[in-house]
Amino acid sequence: MNTKSIIVIALVVVGVVVLASLCLGLITPGKPTKFLGVDIAKDDGQFILPIAGALALGGGIALLLVKPRRL
Fold first, then answer.
1. Burial class of residue 34 (count of CB atoms within 10 Å of its CB; 0-12, 13-18, 19+)
2. Non-local CB neighbours of 42 within 8 Å, separated by 6+ positions
3. What SS3 state is found at 69?
4. pLDDT tens, 29-63?
5. Most CB within 10 Å of its CB: which of 13, 26, 41, 70?
């Protein structure tokens, strides 16, 4: 298996996983705030946009369709 095949497989798999989850999210605990004697915890959400998955999938398919040049 050559390098191109490995890159194509990785891009297609990443693209499918991101698009299948629609918004692959990651929630991290934020800094708690104290207001009137009550601790209020805030969670910070981070996510991967679906457009990134579409670009990865499209790039993998494009690399798959490109034929190598012969010198």
1. exposed
2. 30, 31, 32, 33
3. coil
4. 778 888 888 888 877 776 777 888 889 999 999 98
5. 13
The torsion region of residue 56 among left (phi > 0), alpha (psi -120 to 50) and beta comes to: alpha
Q: Is residue 70 part of a domain?
A: no
Q: State pTM to two decimals.
A: 0.63
| Identity of the residue numbered 37 | G
From CA 16, how far away is CA 45, in angstroms rounded?
22
Distance CA 56, CA 45 (A): 22
Domain assignment present for 71: no
Task: Return the beta strands (E) in the chain as ranges.
Answer: 24-29, 33-35, 38-40, 43-48
**For the chain, how many structural domains are there in total?**
1
Contact indicator for 42, 33 with CB cutoff of 8 Å? yes
